[in-house]
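Propose amino acids for all 540 sites.
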C-alpha cells in the first residue's frame, strides 16, 4: 500500500494534522492507523481542559508563558513556549469552528477554570470530559474528507529505514530516511508494509509502563520505542508526570479513574489520614501548586503514615455546581459507594504523562527524514521538566498545525515517493517471519509485563535513588534479553510488541534518570536532592 501522508495515532494530534492536510491537499491521500477503536486514545480520557488566553482583560500571553516556564523548572525552550501560547488561541478557535462545545455561563461567555500552576482562570472545558468532546469533534470532521482513510485495529511494528534495505544504520548515520512502516493487520493477522512520503508519529504516551496509571491500555510508548530502534533521537524520558489525584480503589491495577485537577481549582482540599490539610507545609500555593510538588507531597504523606492513599475533601463545595461541572466524577464515586457531599474521596498519585519523548524541532521534524512527531510522544521543549496542567491538548493542536505546514510544503515539492536504497531504487522487502513459530504460552508475555510495571513503580517512581535505579536497570536488562529472544523465535503479536516497546521505554526512563545527577521538576533523586547549575537535556 502507498499513501502520500501516513498518520500513526488517532488522538487530537493525529486527527488535527490529518484534517488540515486533507483540506489543503484534496488530491493527496491521507491514511490514519490506530491499533484499537478510532476514539480509544489518551485524548479521550483528558478531563480537565485546554489552557488558552481567552480573557485578555484579566489574562495575558506573558502570564501563561511565565506559568509554563515556572512549571517546567528551567528546562523549557522559551521560544517554543511563546509559539504554543500565542498560536494556541487560534487553534482553540479553530476546533470551536469545527464543532467543539466548551462550557459557557448564562451570558454565553466561556466559563474558564483554574488549575495547579496557573496564575489566572484560563482553562476551557466541557464538563469533566473535555478530551472526549474534542475527539468527537475531530472524528466527525474527518468523516467528511473522502481523501482520509482511517484504519482501526492496525498495529505498527516498526518504521522502515535504510536498515531494512541492508544498510548499517547507527545514531551517527547522516540522513536516516523513513520510507514507511510494517504493520500487523489485526483482521488478518498478517504483517504488511505501507510506504509513504510523509509519516507522522502521534502515538501518545507510555503510562502502561507503570502499575497504576490514568492512561488507557493502548498507552504503551510504541512511537518512542520504534524511534529509538530506528536510531532516532529521544530526550528527557526521565520526566514522567504523576497525576496527584487518581481515584484509589483497593486491589485495582492498570488504568485508574482520574480526579481532574479542576476539582481542586474549584476549591477541593487535600487531607492526610488524620484529616489535616497538609499542602501548606510544602508550598505556598497549597493545593494548586504544580503537579510535581503536589505528587511528591502526597507521596511523602503516604510514606510517613504508611497508607496507600490520602483524601480529597469536596464536602464543603457547592454540590449543585459540582454535579454540573463534574458529572462523571460524581457518578463514578457514587458507583463505588462514595457520596462526595458527605465523604472524602480516597486518591493517590498515578503515572499520567510523559514530558520527554521523540526529539522534535519547532516544526515537528525529528532526526529522521520524512518523519514528524507531535502530541505526547514528542519532546518539543514546551514542558521542560514538568508539564503545566492543560497545556498538552494545546501543544498537540499547535504542533499538528506546524507539522502540517512544513510537511505539505515538502510533499508539494516532490514528484514521486522518496527513492529507497540510497537512490538505487530497491524495493522495500516484505516482512520476513521465516523460522518463527506460534507462541506456546502467553504467560511469557503477561508475566514480563507485570514484572516491568512493578519494578518501574517501585524503583523509578515519584522519588528515586541511585540504588533503586541500578536495580531497575539490572532487571530491565534481563527482561529485554528474554523478550528479544521471544521476539526472534515466535510469530509476533500486538501483545508481544507492546511488552517489547514498554521494556524499551522503561529502559529510556531509567537511563535518563541515571544520567541526571540532580533533582529537577518531575525527577527527584534523594542522592542528588538539589538542582545543578548546568541546565541540560538528556538525549538518548
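Proposal:
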Amino acid at each position: 500500500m502507498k499513501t502520500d501522508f501516513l498518520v500513526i495515532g488517532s488522538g487530537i494530534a493525529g486527527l488535527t494534522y490529518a484534517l488540515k492536510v486533507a483540506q489543503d491537499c484534496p488530491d493527496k491521500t491521507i491514511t490514519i492507523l490506530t491499533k484499537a477503536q478510532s476514539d480509544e486514545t489518551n485524548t479521550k480520557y483528558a478531563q480537565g481542559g485546554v489552557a488558552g488566553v481567552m480573557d485578555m482583560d484579566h489574562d495575558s500571553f506573558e502570564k501563561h508563558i511565565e506559568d509554563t516556564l515556572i512549571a517546567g523548572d528551567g528546562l523549557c525552550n522559551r521560544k517554543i513556549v511563546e509559539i504554543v501560547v500565542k498560536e494556541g488561541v487560534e487553534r482553540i478557535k479553530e476546533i470551536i469552528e469545527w464543532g467543539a462545545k466548551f462550557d459557557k455561563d448564562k451570558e454565553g461567555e466561556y466559563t474558564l477554570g483554574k488549575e495547579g500552576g496557573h496564575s489566572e482562570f484560563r482553562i476551557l472545558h466541557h464538563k469533566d470530559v473535555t478530551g472526549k468532546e474534542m475527539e468527537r469533534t475531530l472524528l466527525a470532521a474527518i468523516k467528511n474528507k473522502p481523501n482520509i482513510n482511517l484504519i482501526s485495529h492496525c498495529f505498527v511494528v516498526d518504521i522502515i529505514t535504510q536498515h531494512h534495505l541492508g544498510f548499517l544504520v547507527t545514531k551517527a548515520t547522516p540522513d536516516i530516511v523513513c520510507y514507511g512502516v510494517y504493520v500487523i493487520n489485526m483482521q488478518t493477522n498478517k504483517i504488511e508494509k505501507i510506504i509513504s512520503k510523509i509519516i507522522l508519529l502521534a502515538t501518545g504516551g507510555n503510562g502502561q509502563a507503570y502499575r497504576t496509571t490514568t492512561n488507557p491500555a493502548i498507552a504503551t510508548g510504541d512511537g518512542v520505542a520504534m524511534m529509538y530502534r530506528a536510531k532516532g533521537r529521544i530526550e528527557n524520558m526521565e520526566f514522567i508526570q504523576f497525576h496527584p489525584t487518581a481515584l484509589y480503589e483497593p486491589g485495582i491495577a492498570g488504568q485508574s479513574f482520574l480526579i481532574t485537577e479542576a476539582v481542586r481549582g474549584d476549591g477541593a482540599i487535600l487531607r492526610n489520614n488524620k484529616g489535616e490539610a497538609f499542602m501548606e507545609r510544602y508550598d505556598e500555593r497549597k493545593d494548586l501548586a504544580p503537579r510535581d510538588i503536589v505528587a511528591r507531597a502526597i507521596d511523602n504523606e503516604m510514606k510517613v503514615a504508611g497508607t496507600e492513599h490520602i483524601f480529597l475533601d469536596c464536602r464543603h463545595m457547592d454540590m449543585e455546581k459540582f454535579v454540573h461541572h463534574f458529572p462523571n466524577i460524581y457518578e463514578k464515586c457514587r458507583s463505588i459507594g462514595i457520596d462526595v457531599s458527605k465523604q472524602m474521596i480516597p486518591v493517590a498519585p498515578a503515572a499520567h504523562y510523559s514530558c520527554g519523548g521523540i526529539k522534535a524541532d519547532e516544526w515537528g521534524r525529528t532526526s529522521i527524514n520524512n518523519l514528524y512527531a507531535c502530541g505526547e510522544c514528542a519532546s518539543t521543549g514546551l514542558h521542560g521538566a514538568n508539564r503545566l496542567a492543560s497545556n498538552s491538548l494545546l501543544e498537540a493542536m499547535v504542533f499538528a498545525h506546524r507539522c502540517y505546514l512544513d510537511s505539505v510544503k515538502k510533499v508539494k515539492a516532490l514528484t514521486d515517493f522518496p527513492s529507497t536504497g540510497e537512490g538505487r531504487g530497491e524495493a522495500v522487502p516484505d516482512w520476513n517471519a521465516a523460522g518463527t513459530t506460534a507462541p506456546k504460552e502467553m504467560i511469557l508475555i503477561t508475566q514480563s509485563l507485570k514484572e516491568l510495571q512493578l519494578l518501574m513503580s517501585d524503583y523509578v517512581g515519584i522519588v528515586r535513588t541511585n540504588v533503586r535505579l541500578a536495580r531497575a536497570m539490572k532487571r530491565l536488562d534481563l527482561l529485554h534479553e528474554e523478550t528479544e529472544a521471544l521476539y526472534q523465535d515466535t510469530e509476533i503479536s500486538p501483545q508481544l510488541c507492546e511488552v517489547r516497546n514498554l521494556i524499551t521505554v522503561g529502559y529510556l526512563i531509567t537511563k535518563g534518570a541515571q544520567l541526571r545527577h540532580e533533582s529537577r521538576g518531575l525527577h527527584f533523586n534523594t542522592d542528588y536532592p538539589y538542582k545543578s547549575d548546568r541546565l541540560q537535556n538528556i538525549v538518548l
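The two ends are 32 Å apart (CA to CA). DSSP finds 13 helices and 18 strands in the chain.
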